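step 4 of 6: structure.
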Amino acid sequence: MSTVLDPTGELRVVDRPRVERPASLDGLTIGLLDITKARGDVFLDQLDLRLTERGHHVVRFSKPTFTKVAPIDLRQEIATQCHVVIEALAD
Amino acid sequence: MHDIADLESRGLPGVFVASREFIDAAATQAAAIGFDAARVFVDHPIQDRTDDEMRALADRAVDEILAAITTR
Amino acid sequence: MELSDVADGFVAVVKRDCPTCTLVAPALALLARSAASRGMALTVLTQDDPAFPEQIAHPDCPAVLVDDTDLGRSYRLDIDTVPTLLQVVDGEETARLVGWSREAWRQLTGDPELGHDLPEQRPGCGSLTLDPGRSDELRVRFEGSRLRSRRVEISPLEDEMEAMFDRGWSDGLPVVPPSPARVLRMLEGTTRAPDDIVAVIPPDLVPCSVEKVAVNAVMAGCKPEYLPVVLTAVEAACTDEFNMHGLLATTYFAGPVVIVNGPLSRAIGMNSGTNALGQGNRANATIGRALQLVVRNVGGGVPGGVDRATMGNPGKYTFCFAEDESDPRWETLAVEKGFAPDASTVTLFAGDGVRGVVDQLSRQAESLARSFAASMVAIPHPKLAFAFDMVLVVSPEHARVFHDAGWSKDQLRARLTELTELDGDDVVRGAGGIDEGMPEAFAGQRFPKLRPGGLTIVRAGGGAGLFSAIIGGWVSGRMGSDPVTREVTS
């Protein structure tokens, strides 16, 4: 790890902007990505329940292990099936 | 964080949820990868919570999570 | 401060890898005893070996041996030579001796027997704090907190150079990663405090600290000794008169041209001679580039963003040179602007590129002036007047023609102003079959091509070549830009 000093005016918090957000989730698919850390499943089940109650369409995914970045095919799967994604739960 | 950064680069608005223990680590990581992923923090600890407590955490976080992936 | 935990008496700083330190080690042991007998303490800081000097490490020795192999104390005490002997009273340094001098040590310690078997004098060795590599690390350790810029971690998976591009910090060429060590080293180039505000940088109008300029100077490839010139260039560029904001935003070709005058230009090795306007000189190349990187990174001025240039010009990477001041007959730009001959200055000009003027035959000043004038009239269009300033860069061989004729720079300028006068009938819109031109009202009049003060003349270039150069300007005056000269002070 090397450190450099930010040469900019630091007006921007990020170096790469976030993707533009939709105004509403109507008609969109929400991906719920479980990082598979213990206890996270209970949290995600409840989140799934609340989102579904509100009429959102939810698809569940889980990573093989929370210690690594999601495999490329999983990321591609999420990207093709979903419009937005929620990843949980790191502790 | 890396997953969200990658999924955002594929065009998906994303948010990750973590316990408050992760606040500093997430900030460091955001700087490291040059991407300030949207994130929502819930109360620490997690591992010794009852299922009911876990569900309560989710209930409290749901609005903030939705706000992070929409323009609301 | 650093000595507040040290008992009154003496502090010696030594390292094993120094013959003088080894030589004085027995004397230090004697000093420990003689000082102790007088109620004073001896503290010895050892830089490279916690067991050195053995005489001091010995359990019977009343001296305190302090392991300073991390060099923290030596750095904070600003030790540059070992051995160094400090006298300490009430936790404050009251005297300092460097190297070994029997007489001086005896006087300071009040021990008339000290070093009776040692030579009279021995120079010391360099303190480990000054070792290349160690000194950077120490500066980061102890002065890193002076830096206010956000720290950006580059992960081991990222290529450092690529990471600079990915974050949008480059002008298209590789930049030097601005590590805290490099930035601290850069800041040694100025006496100004890192948080001192240099200017407000357009287009985002961000107050820019000395530190931010230093960060970008590192990225541009500057040496620390260039920093004062870069600071002055940034300051001059961000004045109302120069109007960096407008210059950045224009669709025209122009960008800032930096002309450096005075002894500093020579001290830092700037090129005013062969290929002065070209590549190959580090100071010329990196000073001009640092200014552009400050505008890009701090000010947020990027091409396609606020920079709307239709084509731009290659000088927008960097355009910086020094005036050739080697001929005393030539009045320098700095002196002409009212600065002392020994002042170093930076002049900013909004310029669009270099046009060559060839005249290999004129031996008379008048003939050569006419050649210059004929070329100048065409800039930026033969039928337009007033709006565009120029810099005429006279080569040494061409300058000689004017010197031989006894023409001063003022005379040359006055003659060029006359020779570039335009005849309204020739340049009004439609004249010569060209729609572009001056408004119809100018018909029947003669008027100058250049506004008063619109012609800057400097001397630069190699000794061989009967060529000079014209750097065309951008819209001049209040609508655009005025040249600005500032003295380099710190």
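step 5 of 6: annotate
 - The first strand of chain C starts at residue 9 and ends at 14.
 - The radius of gyration of chain C is 31 Å.
step 6 of 6: archive
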